[in-house]
Amino acid sequence: MAIATAFSLKLQILFIIFCCRSYFSTAFTSQDYADALEISILFFEGQRSGKLPLNQRLTWRGDSGLSDGSAYHVNLVGGYYDAGDNVKFGLPMAFTTTLLAWSVIEFGSSMQNQITNAEAAIRWSTDYLLKAATATPDTLYVQVGDPNMDHRCWERPEDMDTPRNVYKVTTQNPGSDVAAETAAALAAASIVFKESDPSYSTELLHAAMKVFNFADRYRGSYSDSLNSAVCPFYCSYSGYQDELLWGASWLHKASLNGTYLAYIQSNGHTMGSDDDDYSFSWDDKRPGTKILLSKEFLEKTTEEFQLYKSHSDNYICSLIPGTSSFQAQYTPGGLFYKATESNLQYVTSTTFLLLTYAKYLGSNGGVAKCGGSTVTAESLIAQAKKQVDYILGDNPAKMSYMVGFGNKYPQHVHHRGSSVPSIHAHPNRISCNDGFQYLYSSSPNPNVLVGAIVGGPDNRDHFADDRNSYQQSEPATYINAPFVGALAFFSAKN
Ligand SMILES: *[C@@H]1O[C@H](CO)[C@@H](O)[C@H](O)[C@H]1NC(C)=O
User: Fold this and answer.
1) Where do the domains of the chain lie, and which CATH numbers do they carry?
2) Residue 196 near ligand 1, beta carbon < 6 Å
3) How many CB atoms lie within 10 A of CB 332?
4) Binding site membership of 248 for ligand 1 (Cβ less than 6 Å)
5) Residues recognised as catalytic
6) pLDDT in tens, 307-339
């Protein structure tokens, strides 16, 4: 008995040592979050299309897509490739931009020396979106590149020779979803540049108003207008009502023009509180709109917006285990889990909303009301921190899902430019089919796509570091964009 007790005591001590050592090795400092913030923005340089500037820091990339649009007599050079391919998809590009801008609006004051890099990442996109929105009246260019042909090749962007088809939405073939998201992006960016570049800010706001008007007047989903050019890649499954309200909300915030307040008041009711399915994404803007509009009530007590406080509470409560309306799914390791494909996009977007709502609540001393109980801003921050720390390496696989962060991170990222030798190391062209040897190779990617967050582990916390498993190993601009804001928040705390 005595021996057994002594033994178990020894075990307990061992356990404490083991537990706490592993705990401390995965506890991140504010400097760690600041380092992650820096590379989370650097990643966007790897996704750049167009002529790279002299201050390009990700030097394995080269110029690409320099004649995008020219066959259509429109200049569509620039912008971002969405993920591991070489198509410029307008809907995710605009959403990425809106979320980068929102990250700066809420947490830019914590970005320190990274604020200029964050603004450059936004501007790389808004310069392109401005051209796409203003080149031709009553037309929005929404995509460059034939996605089916592009996906049949494994080529670096610098070599690509697949058709650079240009797709657009017009009065006859409308796309209220992509147009209203573009309006949201331009409006949100106009807030970012209001002080640092007022004339650019004004230009963005005017373009946003025009493209929103176009989105609202000529209604329809771009999926119906463009079919197989956008589906199943970025099909607008949720329709366009969510983007119209989201676009109006950003215009209201950016312009303070009463037109948009009236628009929100007469159209907001289409967003019931029974539609919470907790997935804020390039497709579904409802959760983000609720949180964004709740600020009007929380900070200005605008009575008309009380509705969005309760909508936001319902949404937030659905994410928090232990509340009566809890309905989200988490992995055994504690990761928010929504889908088998590119799950981390939902984790980063949800984390951003948790932190943003915590900020709005905190400025008001408020709490989220979850049935009979309440949830404080602090517990939302704690839940967000778990998700951020999981991504950075505090997880059962003990690996970081952000490339270049920590000792262990994905080596076989599903990304053409990162996996094929750099144009600078291997100047000879590598053709469509010749590139596939690099997709199937077991070697690590030769070019490190620093800062990229990949699709992430499955619902059992397992991750295959396999280039062919794109569901887990592909990065995307919209995975990183909201994480920029979340990392800024934690880099400022100690
Ligand atoms: C407000 O927005 C409407 C609709 O876009 C526009 O016609 C009007 O000129 C704007 N007003 C101001 C003061 O900017």
Assistant:
1) 2-491 (1.50.10.10)
2) no
3) 9
4) no
5) 414, 465, 474
6) 899 999 999 999 999 998 899 999 999 999 999
